[in-house]
Amino acid sequence: MKWLSSLFIIAGLVCLAVFGYQYMQTEQAREQSMAEAQESISAGGQSEENGMPINADDFDPELYAAIGTLEIPKLEKTLPIVEGTDPDALDKGIGHLLNSVFPGQGEQIVLSGHRDTVFRNFDQIEIGDQFTVTMPYGTYTYEIRETEIVPEDDTSVIRSMGEEVLVVTTCYPFHYVGNAPERFVTYAYPVDSQ
């Protein structure tokens, strides 16, 4: 019986080591994305072709590129936004859905992130809270006017809205163990842009 308890202890230590390693890799990837986003913002979105500043309509980042930051004042967080929403992109930060537009383009902008990494404490978010998105070509502030909870496979939240709306999604319930069956969705509307 003593060997069985030793086996459980060793298995537990291995699990902790694997979790620790994965956590450190995710943190390093997020820090690197944040540095890349801040560098891009500082450069002012200069075009590589002609050195001229770009605008929202000319912005065309590569997949997995760090494209900007999302500030959540309520949570005292500033997080990198990465192009794409597949697992590789979400390991680096908040993902921007490829077929949605960018701030300043007058339509739906969709950002997604994990509830247990970038959107930890997202259960504190309320209507009236703000998000600030900083891109290489400008800063955009949005105020949350509506939230909803939808099934994980409900794609009806991705749609043409006829106006600029920042849609931020994460898994729900927030403290669920395993793959969460629903999504928490916020709809935030522009209050200021520069």
UniProtKB/TrEMBL annotation:
<dbReference type="GO" id="GO:0016787">
    <property type="term" value="F:hydrolase activity"/>
</dbReference>
<protein>
    <submittedName>
        <fullName>Class D sortase</fullName>
    </submittedName>
</protein>
<dbReference type="InterPro" id="IPR005754">
    <property type="entry name" value="Sortase"/>
</dbReference>
<feature type="active site" description="Proton donor/acceptor">
    <location>
        <position position="114"/>
    </location>
</feature>
<feature type="active site" description="Acyl-thioester intermediate">
    <location>
        <position position="171"/>
    </location>
</feature>
<dbReference type="Pfam" id="PF04203">
    <property type="entry name" value="Sortase"/>
</dbReference>
<dbReference type="InterPro" id="IPR023365">
    <property type="entry name" value="Sortase_dom-sf"/>
</dbReference>
<keyword id="KW-0378">Hydrolase</keyword>
<dbReference type="InterPro" id="IPR041999">
    <property type="entry name" value="Sortase_D_1"/>
</dbReference>
<dbReference type="InterPro" id="IPR053525">
    <property type="entry name" value="Sortase_D"/>
</dbReference>
